[in-house]
Design a protein that fits this description.
Blueprint lengths: L4 E7 L16 E2 L2 E2 H11 L4 E6 L3 H7 L5 E4 L6 H6 L2 H4 L5 E6 L7 H13 L4 E7 L8 E4 L5 E5 L6 H4 L3 E10 H8 L15 H8 L4 E5 L12 H21 L3 E2 L6 E2 L4 E2 L4 E2 L4 E3 L3 E2 L4 E2 L3 E4 L2 E2 L4 E2 L2 E4 L2 E2 L4 E2 L3 E3 L4 E2 L4 E13 L4 E13 L4 E2 L4 E3 L9 E3 L4 E2 L4 E3 L2 E3 L4 E2 L4 E2 L8 E2 L12 H13 L1
Parallel strand pairs: 1-4, 1-6, 4-5, 7-11, 12-15, 13-16, 14-17, 15-18, 16-19, 17-20, 18-21, 19-22, 20-23, 21-24, 22-25, 23-26, 24-27, 25-27, 26-27, 27-28, 28-29, 28-31, 29-32, 30-33, 31-34, 32-35, 33-36, 35-37
Antiparallel strand pairs: 2-3, 6-10, 7-10, 8-9
Helix pairs in contact: 7-8
The structure holds uridine-diphosphate-N-acetylglucosamine and calcium ion.
Length: about 475
């Protein structure tokens, strides 16, 4: 049988330095709350049980993470050891190992946590600390090793001597414990220290003194170790996460030009042989097929794009784009729009809640909203669906092969049937039958040789 793998995530602290009404771990990195990275990684690792210790703003975590973890309340924040102690009722006496992580350290990869567990098992340790070598270790707990290299204890910055502060190997706040030994040792932790707190790292020296094996797993990439305490670290962690996401897409066969100008959120999917150009921003549940040209400056939120489509200088939200579609430059596509394959939507076109059929074109300067457009429809320059009368939204239906001339107003509700033809400048208020020609504008009046008379009239007026 597989060994129990429990996880305890500490998130009861106040997060004061964020200066936020929102719980620290719910602040987002690349479009995803930081705690989700930890939960997703743990899920991926197949943890038996995930417990989260909450306190300050705990209700907001319970709401945001409902069903994803078991919550344990820590009424008073008396320290990290005290926090872990709160999970006693779920973990006490259980077999297996327990990972302890901080909710505000979102960058650890599955590989890093797996190798922490590997080392823990290999060494048959009671506790294994994930450590990192930092150029500037200020503020962190230092890992104090014995002459033979084994870990003897962790000393907090505030409690450390000058000699101990000179150590650059730090405690990342992530540990792997033999579960039963952890809970035995927790009972022996006291708060005789600079902060008057019950320190979880004290478990290390307690177990070491009992003759247990203590191991350490040193991280390969120390950047992963960073914690987020303020908005500056939030930005640093985000750019690190962004780099990681971008590298993942590149490894998957996506070309990204000038990647430092491109934003790609965590859950975005892009197929191989798509190219992303500078200034693009791909967010939410956006999914892009292969062979697409995205950008420059394509801003996509929750958009699904099929293969071979091209989107330049445009903003698209919550919509579906078919195969071989051309969009932009300067198109705004609002929610609930779908463009079937081979459609073309051009400059200064605004679409909202519009379904556009195969091969149809809306090439320039048009507004199409609350509309159902068939196949091979041509919507010429300046067409407006008049979908709102100040009270309610109404629908415009244009069937296959219809031609809507320039500067037409389609006053909805209205239907233009198959292959109907609407003359430029028309204001259409009634349905147009199939194959019909509709023209709804005033006839032109042309007065021959009238300009000289007009000129005289104006001059006379001006000299008065
Ligand atoms: C802790 C470690 C330190 C390590 C550092 C890594 C201790 C005493 N020190 O220090 O060795 O280098 O992490 O970042 O553990 N929390 C609770 N309840 C509490 C106190 C804290 O849930 O009563 C939570 C916090 O929300 C946070 C985590 O535990 O997620 C760490 O607490 P924090 O006070 O930030 O510890 P550090 O001083 O950073
Ligand atoms: Ca602290």
């Amino acid at each position: 049988m597989k060994e129990n793998l429990n996880a305890v995530i500490l998130a009861a602290g106040k997060g004061t330095r964020m200066k936020s009404k929102k719980h620290k771990v719910l602040h987002e990195l690349c479009g995803k709350p930081m705690v989700h990275y930890i939960l997703d990684t743990l899920e991926d690792m197949g943890t038996t049980q995930k417990l989260m210790v909450i306190g300050h703003l705990g209700e907001t975590l319970e709401e945001a993470l409902e069903g994803k973890v078991t919550f344990v309340k820590q009424e008073e924040q008396l320290g990290t050891a005290h926090a872990v102690m709160q999970t006693e009722e779920y973990l006490q006496g259980k077999d297996g190992i327990t990972l302890v992580l901080n909710g505000d350290h979102p960058l650890f990869t599955k590989d890093t946590l797996q190798s922490l567990i590997e080392i823990h098992k290999q060494k048959e340790a009671a506790a294994t600390v994930l450590t990192a070598e930092l150029a500037d270790p200020t503020g962190y707990g230092r890992v104090i090793r014995q002459a033979d290299g084994s870990v003897s204890r962790i000393v907090e910055h505030k409690d450390a001597s000058d000699e101990e502060r000179a150590v650059h190997e730090i405690n990342t706040g992530t540990y792997c414990f033999h579960n039963q030994k952890l809970f035995e040792a927790l009972k022996l932790v006291n708060n005789n220290n600079a902060q008057g707190e019950y320190y979880l790292p004290d478990v290390i020296s307690i177990l070491q003194e009992q003759g247990e094996v203590i191991a350490a797993s040193m991280m390969e990439d120390e950047k992963e170790a960073m914690g987020v305490n303020d908005r500056i670290q939030l930005a640093e962690a985000e750019s690190y996460m962004q780099e990681r996401i971008i590298r993942k897409h590149m490894q998957g066969g996506v070309t990204i030009h000038h990647p430092s100008t491109v934003t790609i959120e965590a859950d975005v999917e892009i197929d191989a042989d798509t190219e992303v150009f500078p200034g693009s921003s791909l967010k939410g549940n956006t999914k892009i097929g292969s062979g697409c040209i995205i950008g420059p400056e394509a801003d996509l939120q929750d958009v699904v794009v099929a293969d071979e489509s091209k989107i330049r200088y445009s903003v698209i939200e919550d919509s579906e784009i078919g195969r071989n579609v051309t969009i932009g430059p300067y198109t705004y596509i609002r929610p609930n729009t779908s463009l079937a394959e081979n459609t073309k939507v051009g400059a200064f076109v605004d679409l909202k809640n519009a379904q556009i059929g195969k091969g149809s074109k809306v090439s320039h300067l048009a507004y199409v909203g609350d509309s159902e457009i068939g196949q091979n429809v041509n919507i010429a320059c300046g067409v407006v669906t008049v979908n709102y009368d100040g009270f309610t939204k109404h629908k415009t239906i244009i069937q296959d092969g219809a031609f809507i001339g320039c500067n037409t107003n389609l006053v909805a509700p209205v239907t233009v049937e198959e292959k109907a033809y609407i003359a430029a400048g028309s204001t259409i208020t009634e349905d147009v039958p199939a194959e019909a020609f509709a023209i709804a504008r005033q006839r032109q009046v042309t007065k021959t040789d009238y300009v000289p008379k007009l000129r005289k009239k104006i001059n006379r007026h001006n000299s008065l």
